[in-house]
Design brief:
Helix 1 packs across helix 4 and helix 2 runs antiparallel to helix 4. Helices cover 8% and strands 42% of the residues. It has a five-stranded mixed sheet with strand order 5-12-11-7-8, with no helix packed on it. The chain has a five-stranded mixed sheet with strand order 14-21-20-16-17, with no helix packed on it. The protein has a five-stranded mixed sheet with strand order 23-29-28-25-26, with no helix packed on it. By secondary structure, it is mainly beta. Among the domains are: 145 residues, no CATH class; 75 residues, Sandwich (Immunoglobulin-like), CATH 2.60.40. Keywords: Signal. It holds the Pfam family Gmad2.
């Protein structure tokens, strides 16, 4: 499934240049892709992480200008609204005058409702909010709920924002009810924007005891790859508040980078997230030696396309092989460069219908020996909520938008850019990309201090109608030249402008706006 968007190169370049915003780019913040739609989960959280939002599971995400953070526990993502809505959640630090601003907008950006929200809490500590508001519904269609901490200095459009995607119901439809008993979660450790170790220690509080007292902890990198997952039993009694704590080992990235820690609980009825909190952190890099598979993380849930990344390999030519428990085999030949391998593994044509099951990922050398293996749980995306994103590829003198189906996530902008970075595969394999490939990175003749083997997304945040995308230092291998740069800008523009709120796109490399210049 692809949506064709062919155009002459002249038109493509004109589109890029006409949309190029002034390069007054704020310094890149150490946050994961921040997008403008619910922060990663069934509620949203404002953080400088890929907002709009991990979710490789049901997680929301939001945009942030400071170290504060807002977590939304209601309404759920994509809730169907009629004439009223309940908005509830927490903010890490009690806001000025203990007041936030609630903004409900239709897809065209028009305001459906705007008004203050009172919070309950003390200055210097966290606060909660829970309000139900009535509004006059717009025409049926998409919308967004924004909970905003305004910047009282007037220097910024806001200090912190959390956003949740919703749907406005057609006349006569029934509204989606928010969870009857949303659980408010606060992560007290790790602190926002802290540097963590591996294992990572965590602790937090719950406003009520969840089903079976179970709290799930997940660690994600800046591209929303799940690096580790565990669950702990909360301390406390049913009917009262509780606490939780523990530690989690995670698959360390190849370089120190921004990540996110999420704590959430689910409903026993339908598995929906009923409480969530998250912290933006700096993850340590892998410090080992020898062959190491950085992605996917072992014993985690995964899906196709499967992003495979390994370093310290002893050969040049490999077969990446995925063995499903039912005997199905998916494999692809690829090459390692300077011991580094990166591959997005999927079927070349229509995939077989496979249920969720265990699988073993193998990196097999040319002599048939297996150098690395990883146990996984491969998901059947047809049996769970999903998100569809478009990714722009180059096709001759025009462009084409490929379609990727992913597990449900509110961080759709981050998810779309992640797929863009990993390149065209499967039905899109015949197309190309201006993003530097692992080979281009390996062949780069300049200073490569601190480089890994590929470009990765450091962060994306949306402020007003502009998306700010920050790439890793490997983007310096982009090749140069006005035509190539405009192709790169066009790919990112078209990928992000599928989201109505994005009108302009600004790109930086580790916060430097001068790298991507003709």
């Amino acid at each position: 499934m692809r949506s064709l968007k062919y155009m002459s190169l002249a038109l493509l370049l004109a589109a890029c240049s006409s949309q190029t915003p002034a390069t007054n780019t704020p310094a890149a913040t150490s946050n994961l892709p921040a997008q403008a739609t619910a922060t990663i989960a069934s509620g949203s959280a404002a953080t400088s992480i890929p907002t709009t939002a991990p979710q490789a599971t049901t997680n929301p995400q939001a945009t942030v200008a400071t170290a504060n953070q807002i977590n939304l526990s209601a309404p759920p993502a994509d809730a169907l609204l009629t004439t009223s809505v309940r908005v509830a959640g927490t903010i890490v630090l009690t806001p000025f005058e203990k007041t936030l601003r609630l903004l409900i907008q239709a897809e065209d950006g028009s305001t459906v409702y705007e008004g203050p929200i009172s919070t309950v809490g003390e200055y210097g500590s966290s606060a909660t909010f829970d309000v139900t508001v009535d509004f006059t519904p717009p025409a049926a269609g998409k919308g967004v709920i924004k909970v905003i901490e305004d910047d009282m200095s007037g220097e910024l459009p806001y200090r912190t924002i959390a956003e949740q995607a919703v749907q406005f119901a057609p006349v006569g439809a029934e509204a989606t009810q928010a969870p009857e008993q949303a659980i408010l979660i606060e992560l007290t450790e790790p602190a926002m924007n802290s540097v963590v170790g591996n294992p990572l220690n965590f602790k937090g509080t719950l406003s009520a005891m969840p089903f079976e007292k179970n709290v799930v902890i997940e660690v994600y990198d800046s591209e929303l790859h799940l690096l580790g997952q565990t669950s702990v039993t909360a301390d406390g009694e049913y009917g009262s508040a509780g606490t939780f704590s523990g530690s989690i080992n995670f698959q360390a990235p190849l370089t120190k980078r921004i990540g996110r820690v999420i704590a959430y609980t689910t409903s026993p009825k339908d598995g929906a997230v009923v409480g969530q909190a998250e912290s933006t952190v700096t993850l340590p890099q892998w410090e080992g030696t020898g062959a190491y598979m950085a992605q996917p993380a072992p014993e985690t849930s995964a899906f196709l396309p499967l992003h495979v990344e390994a370093v310290g390999l002893s050969s040049d030519n490999y077969t990446v092989r995925l063995r499903y428990a039912d005997g199905t085999l998916l494999e692809q030949n690829t090459q390692a460069y300077n011991g580094y391998l990166a591959l997005s593994l999927t079927w070349d044509t229509a995939p077989p219908e496979l249920p969720t099951q265990g699988a073993i990922l193998e990196l097999v050398k040319a002599d048939g020996s297996v150098e690395l293996t990883q146990n996984l749980r491969m998901l059947d995306l047809t049996s769970q909520p999903t998100t569809t994103v478009e990714v722009s590829w180059l096709a001759g003198e025009g462009s084409i938008n490929g379609v990727r189906t992913l597990p449900k996530t509110a961080s759709v902008a981050s998810a779309a850019l992640r797929e863009l970075v990993w390149g065209p595969v499967g039905e899109d394999a015949a197309y190309s990309t201006a993003i530097p490939s692992p080979k281009a990175v390996a062949d780069y003749a300049g200073d490569k201090t601190g480089w890994t083997g590929r470009v990765y997304l450091r962060s994306v945040r949306i402020e007003g109608d502009t998306a700010y995308v920050d790439w890793s230092r490997e983007m310096r291998a982009w090749g140069g030249g006005a035509m190539h740069l405009e192709s790169l800008q066009a790919q990112v523009d078209f990928t992000l402008k599928q989201f109505p709120q994005v009108k302009n796109v600004v790109m930086t490399v580790e916060g430097d706006e001068n790298v991507l210049q003709p």
